[in-house]
Specification:
This protein is an all-alpha fold. It has 10 helices and no strands. It has one domain. Helix 1 runs antiparallel to helix 4, helix 3 runs antiparallel to helix 4 and helix 8 packs antiparallel against helix 9. The chain is globular and about 45 Å long.
């Protein structure tokens, strides 16, 4: 029951729709009606501009970290409680109860969560994201590559098996949420970073 309570707390925090709220604050009534329809930083950046995009990114990272802190505390502490809270926070971001179970793709929230659970595994993953994004200019490809790196890094660095499992589950969720992006990447129709929809 304690782990379940921790998971619920982490889910509710992770489900806070930062991008939706930030976009509204900058005059975009419903970010889901614009661009890709996603509430994540990339779509907010394309739709509302640089500062809203950066605020969304920072907010999602912060809520992922905070969700693990709170969820682990409520869940009794330890690696298992933190791992469960991390997955719950990402699930909340992807399927938010506040938005009728619609949401983002879990990348920034996952980064925040695993900065708490497996911080040293996120460093090489962040580098992979940066190099991939700069080289190919596909945010989706960079996110997928980074997500795959986190469980590998956690395993190699000797994190508890609960943490490694949580990283693997998170990577699977992020991969699932990027299904449409993968199809567009394969078809050559995925938009590059900085490219407008009309391009």
């Amino acid at each position: 029951m304690t782990l379940l309570a921790g998971a619920l707390a982490a889910y509710l925090l992770g489900a806070i729709p930062v991008g939706y709220l930030v976009a509204r604050g900058f005059g975009v009534i419903d970010i889901r009606s614009h661009g890709s329809g996603n509430i994540g930083a990339a779509n907010v950046l394309r739709t509302a501009g640089r500062w809203p995009g950066l605020l969304t990114l920072g907010g999602d990272i912060a809520k992922g970290y905070l969700a693990v802190l709170v969820g682990a505390a409520v869940g009794g502490g330890g690696a298992a409680a933190s791992a469960v809270a991390a997955v719950a926070a990402i699930v909340g971001n992807c399927w938010s109860v506040y938005l009728r179970f619609r949401g983002g793709k879990g990348v920034a929230t996952g980064l925040g969560a695993f900065l708490n659970v497996a911080p040293w595994a996120t460093a090489p993953a962040a580098l992979v994201w940066l190099v991939t994004a700069i080289t190919f200019r596909y945010v989706s490809l960079a996110s997928l590559m980074a997500a795959l790196c986190v469980p590998i890094g956690a395993l190699v660095l000797g994190y508890p098996r609960e943490s490694v499992a949580a990283c693997a589950v998170a990577a699977a969720i992020i991969g699932y949420r990027h299904g449409d992006n993968v199809e567009r990447l394969l078809a050559g129709t995925e938009r590059r970073l900085g490219e407008r929809r009309s391009a």
